[in-house]
């Protein structure tokens, strides 16, 4: 009797192990939940689908004439913070001023609406390497990795045309795209776009600096290498 | 009077005890092994509408996670990229690849892509990406080597015990902030002098001389320094830290 039990027991164990497999086995089946408790509450999570709205998406567009949390009212500085004594809007705002559009009326402006600091350029470097370098290359020479995979006619950011282009026009290119380049406005906060432009300017400068313009320490370093 | 119980029934109770013990142990062993997120979640790899290869985009092209998951540093939720993000490149790259047909349809019709969600914490838990990635916890600690996955799967159990394991001893997971999205980072790669001058010396080695560039820092040393310098103190005993 015990023998039959053990034979059945071993067969049972083997079949459980065969059916259920081991920890970490890849499986397309959703995780089993025996006691769901309150793990799934009837609420909408970000980017989830909805059976209520006709377009099937729980994320809604702002209704015309309303202002989402975190945005400012045109003409008001709801979220303004005082930096160096002047009021500045923060993050995503929609007021159509130079800071948000790169334009004065219909013409592109030149110059930075925020103070260009070391920290801003460093931030710009980080954001440029994340968002732009895959196509434009680390130095902006249009030799990013995707140029080997079929993205044609990437603009060379070291061209005289881009060097003399107003800052506001570059801002507009980042926000809305240009010809075959897509829009990056939805992914990059306004301040970061200005940071990227400051870094592009620094890159352009870095490719055309005369030795005499360098700080003394760097000049020495260069001479010792020659 | 004849025996009511035959002779063999004398050892029956022992046999029953043996069977119950063996079965009981097997069942609890099975529960321990199978009824845990280490089994139910780890390895979950649903079929996606487009078999998006992270290994090609991150490993081969060298893209940063934040090109696509662009709000992971500023939001609780790490966003899945929009169709437009794919079309930035795929309007030109692999234009005829049938695998990308759903992306092109979505771009043409404006209907969002329906990716299958893989990682999902229970709804009664508060989890915030920005609180972690801005405090030195890399994606790799919680999602595994995504940069080598052809199709993403659930790599870590994401159970409460797993969260607490790290919260009780975060020094094994911390790294400098500019290496958060570099999933191949190794503590040995860190430049000793730069590290010590920005974050200070490891708290237990205040007297050691780190001026020799050949010194390699260990994860323990880096983590302990950062915990000390950034005053890292994740909720571990306070239930309301995660169950708000």
UniProtKB/TrEMBL annotation, chain A:
UniProt domain Cytochrome c: residue ranges: 119-204
Keyword terms: Heme, Iron, Metal-binding
Superkingdom per UniProt: Bacteria
Signal peptide span: none
Keyword Transcription regulation among record annotations: no
UniProt cross-references to Gene3D superfamilies, sorted A to Z: Cytochrome c-like domain
InterPro entries: Cyt_c-like_dom (IPR009056), Cyt_c-like_dom_sf (IPR036909)
GO MF terms, alphabetically ordered: electron transfer activity; heme binding; metal ion binding
Protein name according to UniProt: Cytochrome c domain-containing protein
From TrEMBL, chain B:
Stored InterPro entries: Cyt_c7-like (IPR029467), Multihaem_cyt_sf (IPR036280)
Annotated TM spans: 12-35
Cytochrome c7-like domain span: 51-95, 126-173
CDD domains documented for this protein: Cytochrom_C3 (cd08168)
Keyword terms: Membrane, Transmembrane, Transmembrane helix
Pfam family, one: Cytochrome_C7
Alphabetical list of PANTHER family matching this protein: CYTOCHROME C7-LIKE DOMAIN-CONTAINING PROTEIN (PTHR39425:SF1), LIPOPROTEIN CYTOCHROME C (PTHR39425)
Identification of the protein by name: Cytochrome c family protein
Species of provenance: Chthoniobacter flavus Ellin428
